[in-house]
Amino acid sequence: MGESIGKVGIIGLGFVGLPLALAFVRKGFEMIGIDLDQNKIAKLDQGQSYVRDIDDSEIAQAQASGRFAVSSRYEDIKAADSIIICVPTPLTPYHTPDLSYLIDTCNRLSPHLQQGQLIVLESSTFPGTTKEVVQPILERGKLRVGKDIYLAYSPERIDPGNSLAIEQIPKLASGVTEACLDKVYDLYSQVFDSVVKVSSTEAAETAKLLENTFRLVNISFINEFAHICDTMKIDVWEVIDAAGTKPYGFTVFYPGPGAGGHCIPVDPLYMQWKARQFGVQSQFIEL
Ligand SMILES: NC(=O)c1ccc[n+]([C@@H]2O[C@H](COP(=O)([O-])OP(=O)(O)OC[C@H]3O[C@@H](n4cnc5c(N)ncnc54)[C@H](O)[C@@H]3O)[C@@H](O)[C@H]2O)c1
Nearest C-alpha to atom 28 of ligand 1 is from which residue? Predict the structure, then answer.
């Protein structure tokens, strides 16, 4: 077994959690992955990947290091110094945030928390989730955030299908307290090339929603623009390439079959839901 530089627990081994788990192993950490999906655990145990961008050989390599273990038992997380949550945050049938996976995770995790552990939320969500939803559940026992345990938010920015390695994408880091921020910054600086401190968890949560809302609005717009050009018999691709030569004030977006990925059309509705609680509305998201 290669020498471990720390123990990290990752809850939710999907499109986000599995690449993150492998990145931690590559950097020398011992990784304990938790997922309730027995099929995924069985596949990983057999050295098989179920994420398109990850080859079976990467799983085999991680296993060979002796620092990659997976299970469905939350008690295994007790041994971790840091715990990273990467569970789904979809919409309900009413197009409102569905935090059931996150709340279930926190409920299961809470009884196993140990003094000194850092908990990082990576799931995309509305501003306030870390403090208003996660923190109260984690503090059900005697442990207090900022004193006994540390709570942070760092949104995942993985770009499935593209070649940029996860470590190369700058990582936002925020904490409920200064001590929480320092802990997550120190941990992520050992894995990511660039870690950017953000002053509050709310700002980091909102930054992720801005990124995805920006993409949704611009993809939707360029699709409409393509339709207009098509009707006018103007080649929209040539138009975009021509406009793209402008060195400032323009970002290239290309027409496609829709505002793709499963986060792009979902995340803006998290922002809209929270904004409504403050009596404001986004006409762009609504559109
Ligand atoms: N997929 C992307 O490209 C992407 C990019 C950036 C951010 N995100 C965000 O990251 C989060 C995770 O997305 P994903 O694409 O990895 O989802 P996913 O569905 O691929 O993976 C989530 C995993 O969590 C597991 N899970 C669910 N509830 C659990 C529980 N209580 N305990 C343990 N495991 C549990 C599921 O079995 C699944 O394997 C979401 O908030 C998403 O919006 C996704």
Answer: 101
Best mutation site among 34, 137, 156 for ligand 1 pocket (most ligand atoms within 8 Å of CB): 156
CA distances from 18 to 2, 101, 251, 280 (A): 20, 17, 31, 37
Q: How far apart, in Å, are the Cα atoms of 55 and each of 13, 22, 83, 135?
A: 15, 11, 25, 36
Per-residue pLDDT tens over the stretch 90-140:
999 999 999 999 999 999 999 999 999 999 999 999 999 999 999 999 999
Distance 147 CA to ligand 1 centre (A): 29
Report how far ligand 1's centroid is from the alpha carbon of 89 (Å): 7
Q: Which of 83, 263, 267 is the pocket-test mutation for ligand 1 (most atoms within 8 Å of CB)?
A: 263
263 is catalytic: yes
Rounded to the nearest 10 degrees, what angle do helices 56-65 and 17-26 cross at?
A: 50
pLDDT in tens, 136-180: 999 999 999 999 999 999 999 988 877 789 999 999 999 999 999
CA–CA dist 26, 59 (Å, integer): 11
Domains and CATH numbers, the chain: 7-199 (3.40.50.720), 206-286 (1.10.1040.10)
- In this structure, the residue with its CA closest to atom 13 of ligand 1 is 88
